[in-house]
Amino acid sequence: MTIELLAQAPAGEVIGLGESITFWIMGALALLGALGMVLARNAVHSALCLAGTMLSLAVLYIIQGAPFLGFVQIIVYTGAVMMLFLFVLMLVGRESSDSVVEVLRGQRVAATLFGIGFAALLLGAVGGALFSAPSIGLSPEDAAGRNVHNIGALIFTEYLFAFELTSALLITAALGAMVLAYAQTKGRNKRGQRATVVARLRGEHDRISPLPGPGVFATGNSVAVPALLPDGSIAPESISSIIDATPIEPAGQPEPDAHALTGKRDEEEDQ
Amino acid sequence: MSPANYLLLSALLFSIGAIGVLVRRNAIVVFMCVEMMLNAVNLSLVTFARMNGALDGQVMAFFVMVVAAAEVVVGLAIIMSIFRTRRSSSIDDANLLKY
To answer: Which B positions 19-48 lie with beta carbon below 8 A of chain A?
Structure first.
């Protein structure tokens, strides 16, 4: 009996050279990305370093017999989550870098010491308890061929309730994000289109109509070209005050003439 | 090489993420460090699944990913609404609940 049990006990799996090489390369890249994320001053650089770490982790998942998780990692994390982070970074303003002022004195040093001690404890525990632990290894069909099928079977049988709770969580998160994102715009009473027109006609604005656009397509393709009024005079409001304020000479004030439309002025001057 | 190497890497990544959470002052960067810690735990879950020869660890890592996605959505919305009212994404400025 005992002999049979011993014979059935699976032998520890052998890790091939290829996996070792991939681990050392990708693990080093993941560590570099993590350090870069913590040390980078610019938040966008932090986000890019984190994306690199996540891609390296996806490769590590795949070589460990979790191809489904590896691709989910690439699509969901580096594809969706990191893009969400970058969007928020661009909205918040990427130059909003860290303040150098320490609110609590010595907090950074203490935090770094704590982190190093924590890492030492964790590495010691893992190294002491698990380094010689036997590894059974996934069966070949679990690892490669039928990985997605078997994960799906597990999710929809053994973990079905947790999976349904997940759907409730996702819906709650989506609703919560909408509530939080729209909370600020609700209190402000925005004036509608009709109310704006009525206010314009009542004279609450500077002028009834919007400002005239520049004469871009009349004589040239520069926004510095003024629009012409029906009597041929220049509409001064058609040029933005920003253009007037720029020190670059905007090729002078063109005079209204009919030759500019046909482009024959130069030939006449030559003659 | 043994599968515990993956666990050591996971522990290192988790510690670096923890240091980042404690040291950095930008709320978005702090949030990214939390994501890094979740990813490190996922790596250890996948490694445990492999060491045990069963897929349950991978299913748990999958659930962790789902929870992380929901957390990112709500957390970034909170950061955005705080930024709208306080014009700052530094976690030192968000002390309204203190008094």
So the answer is: 19-20, 22-26, 28-29, 31-33, 35-36, 39, 42-43, 46-47
